[in-house]
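PROTEIN DESIGN WORKSHEET
SECTION A - STRUCTURE
LENGTH: 151
TOKENS:
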């Protein structure tokens, strides 16, 4: 039953029927709480621009399973978009401490360092991890040229 509800919620979200997706994810949560359901509900809330609800859901996903990396990354991304750079940086650093080190996490951390004016840390992180994938991520954030100027 929950699998079918989850599939319907995914489909509703993909098709932009956000209120329906929210309702279906809430039904899923009444049956069983999983980090995936909380994370997906948070993603729906982001699309609805209900950012406080999204943050709460990402945090519930993390509480369900602290190793569920996707919720950490999504929460950090939301914090960046809301310009909560110091909080995003703390979350991203905790991911690195847990061994989650991918280009998306590194790029977001470099963005935080740049905004928080920790330029030496941004440069060090870039030098240690420079790659084409990291460059693409930094370009998406619009900071690749700034980083290259600093290096």
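SECTION B - SEQUENCE
RESIDUE ASSIGNMENT:
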């Amino acid at each position: 039953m929950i699998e079918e509800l989850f599939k319907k919620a995914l489909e509703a979200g993909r098709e932009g029927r956000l209120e329906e997706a929210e309702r279906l994810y809430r039904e899923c949560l009444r049956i069983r709480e999983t980090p995936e359901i909380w994370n997906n509900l948070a993603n729906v809330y982001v699309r609805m621009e209900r950012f406080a609800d999204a943050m709460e859901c990402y945090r519930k996903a993390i509480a369900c399973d602290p190793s569920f990396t996707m919720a950490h990354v999504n929460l950090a991304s939301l914090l960046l978009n809301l310009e909560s750079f110091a909080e995003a940086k703390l979350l991203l650093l905790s991911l690195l401490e847990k061994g989650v080190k991918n280009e998306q996490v590194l790029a977001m951390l470099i963005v935080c360092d740049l905004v928080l004016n920790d330029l030496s840390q941004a440069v060090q992180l870039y030098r240690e991890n420079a790659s084409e994938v990291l460059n693409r991520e930094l370009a998406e954030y619009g900071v690749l040229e700034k980083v290259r100027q600093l290096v």
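SECTION C - NOTES
The first helix runs from residue 2 to 14.
The chain is about 80% helix and 0% strand.
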